[in-house]
UniProtKB/TrEMBL annotation:
The keyword Membrane applies. It is a single-pass membrane protein. GO terms for cellular component: plasma membrane; side of membrane. Belongs to the band 7/mec-2 family. Residues 21-179 form the Band domain. Residues 316-368 are annotated as: Disordered. Its main location: membrane. This is SPFH/Band 7/PHB domain protein. InterPro entries: Band7/mec-2_domain (IPR050710), Band_7 (IPR001107), Band_7/SPFH_dom_sf (IPR036013), Band_7/stomatin-like_CS (IPR018080), Stomatin_HflK_fam (IPR001972). The lineage of its organism: Bacteria, Bacillati, Actinomycetota, Actinomycetes, Propionibacteriales. Coiled coil: none annotated. Residues 351-368 have a biased composition (Pro residues). It comes from Nocardioides marmorisolisilvae. It is found in: Membrane.
Length: 368
C-alpha cells in the first residue's frame, strides 16, 4: 500500500513537470523563439502556447516594443581638428525576432558601435560651427545609415537624436567670450541706433518748432504791418480832415492883413524865447507887417466911417453898431500894437536898431 502511494506521488510529480514543460505563456508584445535540439523550430505568439516537453525549448523572448537606448558620449574629431563629446539617443524596434536572434549576436551593442562610426564619419566632414548648428543634418545622416544597416538584423531604427555636443573646456570658454562680445556689440549698436533715432527726432522737432515760430513771427509781422498801415491811413485821414476843417474855418473867418500881422508880432517873442538863442534876426518883412498893421488900424472897430450918422467897427468878422464911444476901442488896439512892438524890440539883439512904428494917419473928426 505504501508503495502505491509513493508511485502515485511520483507519477503526479512527473505529470506536473511534463505539464509545466508543455505549457508556455508569452506576454503581450513579446515573441518566443522555440528551438528543438538546438535548431529553430517556431516562434511563439503572445498568449498560451503548447510545446513538446523535454524536446522543444524556448530560447529567447524578444521584446517587440519600440525601445530607447541612450549611448554615452563618444569623442568625435571635427574637420578643424577639435574633439567633441557627442552622446546620442536611438529609438528602434524589432520587426523580425528570428533575424534579431540569429543574424546578430547583440543588436543593441551593434547599433551602438554603428552609431559611433557613422557619427564620426558625418561630423568629421564638418567644422565646429557647423557641428553645433547642424543637428538636424547629423540626425538625418545617422538615421539613413542605421536604418539601412539594421534592416537585415530585423531591427528598424525610428529616429536618432543628438542629446548634447560638448566642446573642450578651452573652446567652451572662448565661445562664451565670443558670445559675450557679440552681445556687447549688439548692445552698443542698439544703444547707438537709439541715440541716433533720438537725435533725429529731436532735430525734426526743433525744425518743426523753428518753422512754426518763424511762421508765427511772420504772421505777427504781417498783422503788425497791417495794423500800422491801417493806423497810418486813419491818422492821415484824421490829419487831412483836421486840415480841411482848419482851412474851412479860416476861410469862413475871412482873416485880413491886419490880423495876420498882429499874430506875426505875437509869435516873435516866442521865437526869441530860450537861453540857447544868442542871436535873433528880425526879418525885413516885419516893417511891411507893421506898416500894414498901422494902415489897418483905421479899419478895425472904433474908427468912424462915413455913413449916415451911424458908426461901425469890424471885430473878427462881426459887425456891431457903435456910437461915438469908439475912440476908447481905438486907443486899446493902438496900445496892444505898441506893447507887441516893445516886446519885439526887447527880445531883439542890441546890434539891430529898433524899428519905429509908423505914425498913424490923422483921424477924421466924427460926423455930427
Amino acid at each position: 500500500m505504501m508503495f502505491l502511494l509513493v508511485l502515485f506521488g511520483v507519477l503526479a510529480l512527473i505529470a506536473i513537470l511534463v505539464l509545466a514543460k508543455t505549457i508556455r505563456i508569452v506576454p503581450q508584445a513579446r515573441a518566443g523563439i522555440v528551438e528543438r535540439f538546438g535548431k529553430y523550430r517556431a516562434t511563439l505568439s503572445p498568449g498560451l502556447n503548447m510545446v513538446t516537453p523535454f524536446i522543444d525549448r524556448v530560447r529567447y523572448v524578444i521584446d517587440m516594443r519600440e525601445q530607447v537606448v541612450s549611448f554615452p558620449p563618444a569623442p568625435v574629431i571635427t574637420e578643424d581638428n577639435l574633439v567633441l563629446g557627442i552622446d546620442t539617443v536611438i529609438y528602434f524596434q524589432v520587426t523580425d525576432p528570428v533575424a534579431a536572434t540569429y543574424e546578430i549576436a547583440n543588436y543593441i551593442s551593434a547599433i551602438e558601435q554603428l552609431t559611433m562610426t557613422t557619427l564620426r564619419n558625418v561630423v568629421g566632414g564638418m567644422t565646429l560651427e557647423q557641428s553645433l548648428t547642424s543637428r538636424e543634418e547629423i540626425n538625418r545622416g545617422l538615421s539613413a545609415v542605421l536604418d539601412e544597416a539594421t534592416g537585415r538584423w530585423g531591427v528598424r531604427v525610428g529616429r536618432v537624436e543628438i542629446k548634447s555636443i560638448d566642446p573642450p573646456p578651452s573652446i567652451k570658454d572662448a565661445m562664451e567670450k565670443q558670445m559675450r562680445a557679440d552681445r556687447d556689440k549688439r548692445a552698443l549698436i542698439l544703444t547707438a541706433e537709439g541715440e541716433r533715432q533720438s537725435a533725429i527726432l529731436t532735430a525734426e522737432g526743433n525744425k518743426q518748432s523753428a518753422i512754426l515760430n518763424a511762421e508765427g513771427y511772420r504772421e505777427s509781422l504781417i498783422l503788425n504791418a497791417q495794423g500800422e498801415r491801417e493806423a497810418a491811413i486813419l491818422k492821415a485821414q484824421g490829419e487831412g480832415q483836421a486840415i480841411l476843417t482848419v482851412f474851412q474855418s479860416i476861410h469862413d473867418g475871412a482873416p485880413d492883413q491886419a490880423l495876420l500881422a498882429y499874430q506875426y508880432l505875437q509869435m516873435l517873442p516866442k521865437i526869441a524865447d530860450g537861453q540857447a538863442n544868442k542871436l535873433w534876426v528880425i526879418p525885413s518883412e516885419i516893417t511891411k507887417a507893421l506898416e500894414g498893421l498901422g494902415s489897418a488900424i483905421h479899419e478895425v472897430g472904433g474908427i468912424p466911417l462915413k455913413t449916415e450918422g451911424v458908426k461901425h467897427r469890424v471885430d473878427m468878422g462881426s459887425s456891431e453898431p457903435l456910437e461915438a464911444g469908439g475912440s476908447g476901442a481905438l486907443a486899446s488896439a493902438e496900445e496892444s500894437v505898441q506893447q507887441a512892438l516893445r516886446e519885439a524890440q526887447a527880445a531883439a539883439p542890441a546890434d539891430i536898431p529898433p524899428t519905429e512904428p509908423p505914425a498913424p494917419p490923422a483921424q477924421e473928426p466924427p460926423t455930427q
